[in-house]
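Table S2 (text version). Query chain:
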Amino acid sequence: MFYRFFLLFFCVIINCQNIDDAISLTFENDNGNARFSAMSGAFGSLGGNLSAISINPASSSVFELSRMGFSLNTDSKDIKSSFSNSTSSINSNYFNFQGGIVYVFKNYGQGKFKKFSFGVNNQNTNDFNFDQQISARSNNSVDQFFVNNSIGYNANEVSVGSNETVSGVYRWLGQNYGYSSQQAFLGFQSYLLDYDNQNSLFYSIAKYNDGLDINNSYYSKGTKNKSSLNLSAQYGENIYLGMNFNIYELYSKKSFRHIEDNFDNDSAITLIDFRNELLTRGKGFSFQIGMIYKLQSFRLGISYNSPTSFNIEEELEQSLETNSIDLNGNEYVDIVDPDITNIYEYKFKSPSKVTFSASNIFANMFIVSVDIQSNNYQNGNFKSDFGDSYSVLNASINENLKNTLNYSIGSELRLKSISIRAGIKKLENPYKIFSDYLSSKSFGLGYDFGASTLDLGFQLIDKNYNYQFFDTGFTEVAQIKNKNFRTTLTYNIIF
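Corresponding structure-token output:
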């Protein structure tokens, strides 16, 4: 019988996280209902939409009547990866449900408050669904990842004694030295690395002066959902006020596999197969306040989203396989599978956000709306309950990331019971050295039955980013183009 061991880290000894984790936890591209999506989410001053609550909590008091809505989202993704003059492509499809409800209570008595609203809305703010594969020729190898992680250790520390097991040593190294020592252990035990006693350092026995073939696959599933508990009120004829208490829940399961073969003819290593399985769970909390001011057909909106405090738990499993050949032509297969689940617990505080909005309704039939959101990624902050172990990473976040300005423009034409919608969105890259990140075009239709509405929205989302293979050693990057065609169907009941 085999037993799976669990190893708990509080990221005191090591920092398992990086800048990309900070971006992933901060980034939001609200996946709302069909009307919201068709107008690219430009609802900060319009209100009167369930998904708009996530942008501006004052939105719910714009409703004249209570309503409940349900949405089905389908994503069709085409991800193209370019590296070393080679291009790979993979297609995938995903589904997502979301919904909300708002109760409107009109004040028929005396006082300035005309009505109050209470609502609950669940919305997908980010998805971790993608299938990515890179196949190319490379002049670098993952062996340098293991070499760099071995610096500072010796052969005795990463060896398995006569009364020890692979699982036991891997577990002990993690408890006492952290992640890097475990990588050195995998490299040495798989015979990818050898040790130079004279110079007290590890070195790779792989040879690839003529290059090698890599196959890097990265599969992920998961979402970050935001549930908003909403309270809003209309003050006088022109002012709408609101607040949210937001609960975030994130889940992702990522599978990473990196294979290298076709080394030099005289290389002792003929194949490397490195596997990682990462499971991430987390919860977060924030609050929002917002206001909408209406002046006849013109509206202005402003909202503030506090920093979001996340508690994150990650589970990591690793294995490394190498194929080798000796001078006599004998072939060997070495598999190092510790059968250990490393558990990392940490905290992250995402930066606050401010959204400015303006809209106008022309002749009670044509709407134009604009949202501008400021989000300073530099203020993202990792922390631990045990010491200041994230000072270097937090300094790197401040140095490499920037404040972003995100733009959304939406429009709607109402023709009696039929509505025609369109919009565009542009999100800046959080990295200082890159510009392109995410843009989208959207359109859709809606039909008002009186007591209910049926809406259909379409989005073409283009997301461009760089993918770094490893954080040390093999640090080359691939260019990723993620094209996502999103379809949203929403049914609202008015009561």
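Notes on Table S2: The CA atoms of residues 41 and 422 lie 10 Å apart. The first strand starts at residue 5 and ends at 9.
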